[in-house]
Amino acid sequence: MQRITVIGGGFAGLTAAITAAEAGAKVTVHEAHHTLGGRARTGDGPYRTNEGPHALYRGGPHWTWLRGRDLIGPLAPVPPRELARFRLRHRGTLRRTPPLPLLKLLRHSADRAPVDTDFHTWATPIAGEDGARAAAHYAAVALFHHDPGSLSAAFVQERLRRATRLPPEAHYPRGGWGALIDRMAAHAWNLGVRVETLSRVDTLPTDTPVVVATSLDSARRLLGDTSLTWPSGRTVLIDLAVRTRRGDAFVVSDLDAPGWLERFTAQDRTLAPAGEQLVQGQIPIAPHETKAHGTARAEELLDLALPGWRDRVTWRREAIADGRTGAVDPPGTSWRDRPAIDRGDGVHLAGDQVAAPGVLSEVSFHSALTAVSLALGRNTLDLKRA
Ligand SMILES: Cc1cc2nc3c(=O)[nH]c(=O)nc-3n(C[C@H](O)[C@H](O)[C@H](O)COP(=O)(O)OP(=O)(O)OC[C@H]3O[C@@H](n4cnc5c(N)ncnc54)[C@H](O)[C@@H]3O)c2cc1C
């Protein structure tokens, strides 16, 4: 029986562990934290917040894989009355429908945007300055960067397409991603995977092939390889619980600057106590900006979306997710240019900043399958079927 060590017990590590165990390998997972899940952990306590993922994109390869193993579990659909409370901020006011130039750009979604040009330069002749900017800012929900228009046009277009598809691709596991992680962990356990939590690895094992399924920053330290870098976003996160008031917006997507506000209890009542709503603001900030800049922009959106919110707050938390929102590709680069999965000597990387396709956690998923297939010397397609 082949043995394999997986370092990191987040979405990538659990995907790798399950895939390797299904292929017949004896798997050990080391997770530094006391619980599994990494950025996909859901907070304990009355307010079930996620640092990272909320949306499971239905068009991604992970959806089919998870569903085939009965791991998705119950979903929290957005009620139609809440969907009707989806708003866009454009030129300082809230509106229900996208500005026409943005729609024009979506109609061009069949044309493949170039890799070598930035999104703003590519989109401006089609949609005008304002439409190009609005589209780039809308796409920020799936890339978390302070200046999406400056990134590769192909990269931004893919995210814009995925985030605007109808019916929406975004689905929400009931109870947050923590519930999905629990199901993956139970499945791994049933397959005989050995999981060691509170087990930070400082030196790579040499007696088994290894999948390093940590963030790229941790992988750089662990492998002692300074070339393991790739740009990512820097995003202020504001989690807020407020007393319920009829008529609060469900989502506000900021088209004037990158930013997104979502009341996650609209689709999932289990995330906060009765009578309260859980809201998260995600505001990408520039390298020179501070948390206070992001907080101020989030509060502007809250003023528009949730009238009287300041008097209704029952709980609040702020954080910066720096380099934790996955890879962004500058013009002239694509996912193929990111750090390679195969590092030689039986060491392979999995995670959301390495050379694999997809949006956000799909990169972690895809790279985990590839890392295992390389580590075990099997074809990825065979592994997918396993
Ligand atoms: C604000 C935000 C919003 C997001 N929204 C979405 C979304 O809507 N949809 C989506 O699909 N994705 C989303 N993402 C991205 C998603 O969270 C990540 O792509 C995914 O969770 C990454 O999983 P991972 O396993 O690759 O890495 P991680 O979750 O970072 O897991 C790595 C694990 O490795 C462990 N570790 C690190 N070093 C060591 C060591 N030396 N030894 C042992 N263990 C170690 C860590 O403790 C951690 O548990 C979002 C992310 C953020 C931050």
Topology summary:
Elements: E1 3-7, H1 11-22, E2 26-30, E3 56-57, H2 61-68, H3 80-83, E4 86-90, E5 93-95, H4 100-107, H5 119-139, H6 153-164, E6 170-171, H7 177-190, E7 194-196, E8 210-212, H8 216-223, E9 232-243, E10 251-254, E11 260-263, E12 276-284, H9 291-305, E13 313-327, E14 347-349, H10 361-376, H11 380-385
Parallel strand pairs: 1-2, 1-8, 2-7, 4-10, 8-14
Antiparallel strand pairs: 3-6, 4-5, 9-12, 9-13, 10-11, 11-12
Helix pairs in contact: 1-7, 1-10, 4-5, 5-6
The protein binds flavin-adenine dinucleotide (FAD).
Give the structure's gist in a few sentences:
With 386 residues, the chain is α/β, with parallel strands linked by helices. 32% of the residues lie in helices and 19% in strands. The two termini are 16 Å apart.
How would you describe what is shown here?
There is one protein chain. The protein is an alpha/beta fold and 386 residues long. The protein folds into two domains: 152 residues, FAD/NAD(P)-binding domain (3-Layer(bba) Sandwich), CATH 3.50.50.60; 185 residues, Polyamine Oxidase, Chain A, domain 2 (Alpha-Beta Complex), CATH 3.90.660. 32% of the residues lie in helices and 19% in strands. The strands form three sheets. Strands 5-4-10-11-12-9-13 form a seven-stranded mixed sheet, sandwiched between helices. Helix 1 packs parallel to helix 7, helix 1 packs parallel to helix 10 and helix 4 crosses helix 5. The mean pLDDT is 95. The site of flavin-adenine dinucleotide (FAD) has 38 residues, from helix 1, helix 8, strand 9, strand 13 and helix 10.
